Amino acid sequence: MHLEYFKLIDRIVDLDVAERTITVEAQVPKENTIFEGHFPGHPIMPGVLLIETMAQASGWLLIAMTKFQRMPFLAAVKEAKMRSFVSPGDLLTIEAGIVHEGSGFAMTSAKVLVGGELRCNATITFGIVPFPHPDLREHMDAEARRIGFPQQAVADD
Amino acid sequence: MSSTFDQVATIIAETCDIPRDTITPESHAIDDLGIDSLDFLDIAFAIDKAFGIKLPLEKWTQEVNDGKATTEQYFVLKNLSARIDELVAAKGASA
After folding, report:
1. Domain count of the fold of chain B
2. A105·B41 Cβ contact <8 A
3. What ipTM goes with this model?
4. How far does the CA of residue A14 sit from the closest CA of chain B (Å)?
5. Domain that holds residue B24
6. How far is Cα A50 from Cα A113, in angstroms, rounded to an integer?
7. Can you give the pLDDT at residue B1?
8. Which residues belong to any copy of the Carrier domain (chain B) (predicted)?
9. pTM score, two decimals?
10. CA–CA separation, B19 vs B73, rounded Å?
């Protein structure tokens, strides 16, 4: 995780476009200024960042499903539940799947696990639009390479 | 009115917390009921699920933006219900 740059996903572990599921990993840093304030003596990962992490994992799945032709933007978060603390140094496994694929929008179900234990989950809605700027598309291509996006998963049949 | 309208009205009432008796076939989802685009996604989700279709929101929006259609054609509820019936029929024909 590069918290300062909001790059919360480190690695794609599994991407199955046919099954519409994705699994990614994210390493929570052991030290970060965020933990100095959240909270002194009891550092924990802020829930909003866990929601963003689930959104980014879901987003990679949606980008894959559109073959990098469209960009998902967070539109709504429902039933987000922070079930137990996520601490500095935790290795997160994030699993996401499609709940509904609409016209120009999609809903996903995502969860964060640490050591196989569920820590939080949410249902997330995205608006899906053509990339609004070529720089963003280039950025996402670079990010895809950084996190090991399996290009064969979206290759034309 | 059709059962399609009744189902749509119920979906809108439950999704957007709008009194059911204020929703009529002549209601415009946006102009009369005040439903915004984000809330309409929840309605589209519920309609897609209930009728086993995929409302072509992107196509409709494009047509409105291009001046080829009016919002009334798609978002007045009697018209929306008619579009849903067409989509259901088309799905049945292609099945």
Report:
1. 1
2. yes
3. 0.86
4. 27
5. 4-93
6. 11
7. 46
8. 2-88
9. 0.91
10. 23
